[in-house]
Amino acid sequence: MKDPVCGMDVDPHAARGGSHAHAGRTYHFCNPRCRERFAAEPQKYLGAPGAPEAAPPGTTWICPMDPEVRQEEPGACPICGMALEPELPAAEAPQDPELRGWSRRFWASLLLTVPLAAAAMAAMAPGRGELAPAWLQALLATPVVLWGAFPFFERGWASIRNRRLNMFTLLAMGIGTAYLDSLVATLAPGLLPAPEHGHGAPALYFEAAAVITTLALLGQVLELKARHKTSGAIRALLGLSPKTARRHADGREEEIPLAEVRAGDRLRIRPGEKIPVDGVVLEGASAVDESMLTGEPLPVEKTAGAKAIAGTVNGSGSFILRAEAVGAHTVLAQIVRLVAQAQRSRAPIQRLADSVSAWFVPAVIAVAAAAFAAWAWRGEPAQGLMNAVAVLIIACPCALGLATPMSVMVAAGRGATAGVLVKNAAALERLRAADTLVVVKTGTLSEGRPRLDAVRAAPGQVEAELLRLAASLE
To answer: What integer pLDDT is reported at residue 270 of this predicted model?
Structure first.
């Protein structure tokens, strides 16, 4: 689980900071200080009163890149190492401790990395020596590597333990190698091979480890923000349903939360309101705008016995609706579920990317080891170390693993906001071969909201009188 204060992963069965119960939910902490801060001001870390939590209890967490990974608690994917996300996002954008944690690490690491990198760059100028002594470089780089890059080491180790090597394996190896070599060169330079002392002082790579960490953290922040934007389409669909309903019983009416509506309840639908659930009209009559579902530009008349769909908008009339399908059983909820499934479905091209990724990381590690061995054989292990680290970092298969799934997520999400539902990623991939679009229903190409745009008087007509007649018809 996530520590709500610092965002770190915590094993609920072995939380070093203990736990604290708040609002019927138990939170676990990485250290006692985080627990104390949370207990003092829980709303500070959970959001303002009434703000949505990261996910409601009972949420199923799923990997956006490997949909077969499903679990009841948040965490990291055992295959690719990415953070799991709720299977169905909430109607409102939730407080995201994962993004908050990565952002905190990035900004703190950036503050320490900038002076370290600036000193290293200035030292490369002709006639300039080291501007920052080794101990100062170690002092700046250590928090970046040990705290900022901690999730990389954690997920890299998990990838080795699970025998599913991924980009975090390469990041952990590259950052760890550069930092440990520099630390040894600072504390015990005599342990390094003699050629390492070619210019009288051991080579230091603290700035490389810090810069790599900071850039990788920036990548994680940007990736999480992109993933949140892709779920915006689903949140927009969920937002079509009202948050409350007006229950009509025993001659009285009361407003209740949508979650409390049960099948068989009688609901009052007032003029201009969104219909909260699927049901049948019992009394009254009105015209309902169903354009969000059918694309029809004109409202549909509803009288006793007619069916009404959740998310559609009532016109100027009022009627009593008997609820038949509520919650996850409404047509709108099923549409949302289909969009979410389409976003996480695998395109056929993804199988190629998966098969390449399975061999890619071991091949990169082998190439990095060969690069180091070749330079060490030439008597330049320091150069070999940097080349090996460069291979590990630059060859991270981020684009290879993310490009196809992210493209599917973005395309399915953008289609949903435009009223186009994509069945799955395979259909989306086949669409590239289409060269003709046949539209069989002109109503689906309209906005669904007829309006009066302008009044123009013919010669001899009085514009004011024409406007009065038009307003009467309207």
So the answer is: 93
**Going by C-beta distance under 8 Å and a sequence separation of 6 or more, which residues neighbour residue 376?**
193, 384
Residue type, 105: R
CA–CA gap between residue 364 and residue 358 (Å, rounded): 11
Residue 427: CA atoms inside 13 Å, Cβ hemisphere, count?
Answer: 13
Give the chain's mean pLDDT.
79
Least confident window among 71-85, 120-134, 211-225: 120-134
Q: Is 263 left (phi over 0), alpha (psi -120 to 50) or beta?
A: beta
What percent of the residues of the chain are helix, what percent strand, and what percent coil, each to the nearest 5? 50, 15, 35
Q: How far apart are CA 80 and CA 99, in angstroms?
A: 18
Cα dihedral 207/212/218/221 (nearest 10): -130
318 in helix, strand or coil?
strand
Entry pTM: 0.61
3-state secondary structure of 260: helix
- Going 147 to 148 to 153 to 154, the CA torsion angle's sign is positive
DSSP state of 373: H
For residue 240, pLDDT over 50 is answered with yes
The number of beta carbons lying within 10 Å of the beta carbon of residue 241 is: 19
Contacts of 56 (CB under 8 A, 6+ apart): 90
Lowest mean pLDDT among 110-119, 336-345, 364-373: 336-345
Contact predicate 189/173, CB 8 Å:
no
Q: How far apart are CA 165 and CA 188, in angstroms?
A: 32
Dump pLDDT digits (tens) for 115-158: 998 887 776 666 555 556 888 888 999 999 999 999 889 888 88
